[in-house]
Amino acid sequence: MIDWDDARVFLAVARAGQMLGAARKLGLDHATVSRRIAALEKALGVTLVERRTTGCGLTGQGEAFLPNAERMETEMLRAQAALSGADVAVSGNVRIGAPDGFGTFVLAPRLGALMDEHPGLTVQLVPLPRAFSLAKREADIAIAIDRPTEGRLVVRKLTDYTLSLYAARAYVARHPALCAASVASGHRVVAYVPDLLFSPSLDYLGEFGLADAPKFECAGMIGQMEAVRAGAGIGVLHDYAVRGDPDFVRICPGQQVRRSYWLVTHDDVKDFARVRLALDHIAGIAAQLAKRFAQP
């Protein structure tokens, strides 16, 4: 039979990457942590932790057992909360994958509040790459551009958002005709690198009639913003990111595209306390910023 105290120590070691760090966090000595891990390994009949001179890592069996230990933790937290009638401390890592714009302008300034409420929680915000797998635990939560349709995923719509054509205020001063409600032809377009797009929905230049315009291609949304700010050309930018920034002027106001963000997690981790807290916090952020995401 598995002892929850042993599993709790295992989780601390897995999260700290070393027994000494886990011991400090748990208020135990190194020998006790080592003994608890050995007891858990004996109960399961497998080796969970690989001891190294620079720390320790999980074996294949340890990686396989980790989600089970986290489910045990979640159930224990639920039981404690139900019996005490109060919230209990939540600890561990929660990794959130997000597109660079949403991650930088929406999440990064607002995730600190979640950690203020739960000091034992570590939030990892990582850029969403072209290939991304929740099933392989590359993240606990993802902000997706397209709604996933396959896999054991829990999906809910987070928010719609819009993109419009913008130019730098100084650029518009040199080209006042840009403010007309017509296609901004004849101008260089600051745009994405087509073969680096991780979603077809991000290929929107054709919707603005600018697919054949001369371009400065930049892979990142933030880089595109700064290039437009510097006068390198006009660009299709996220309205929520530039709203209120005096350096940008929206041009061709009759043109706009609408896209959506989806909040996604894997079914195996959706009930983990740390994941539930992060999901609710992100949904709350989107609700608070509803006006910012609305059409300008």
Describe the overall structure:
The protein has 296 residues and is α/β, with parallel strands linked by helices. 39% of the residues lie in helices and 24% in strands. The N and C termini lie far apart (60 Å).
Helix and strand topology:
Elements: H1 4-16, H2 19-26, H3 30-44, E1 49-52, E2 55-58, H4 60-84, E3 92-98, H5 100-107, H6 112-117, E4 121-127, E5 141-144, E6 153-168, H7 169-174, E7 189-191, E8 215-217, H8 221-229, E9 234-238, H9 239-242, E10 248-266, H10 273-288, H11 290-293
Parallel strand pairs: 3-4, 3-5, 7-8, 7-9
Antiparallel strand pairs: 1-2, 5-10, 6-9, 6-10
Helix pairs in contact: 1-2, 1-3, 1-4, 2-3
In the predicted model, the low-confidence regions spanning at least 5 consecutive residues are: none
Q: Return the CATH class of the largest domain.
A: Alpha Beta
CATH superfamily of the largest domain: Periplasmic binding protein-like II
What is the CATH topology classification name of the largest domain?
D-Maltodextrin-Binding Protein, domain 2
Given the helix and strand composition, which structural class is it?
A: alpha/beta
Report the biggest beta sheet as strand number plus sense, adding barrel if it closes. Answer: 8 strands, mixed
* CATH architecture descriptor name of the largest domain: 3-Layer(aba) Sandwich
Beta strand count: 10
Compute the CA-based radius of gyration.
Answer: 24 Å
How are the strands of the largest sheet arranged? 4-3-5-10-6-9-7-8
Distance between the termini: 60 Å
β-strand percent reads 15-25%
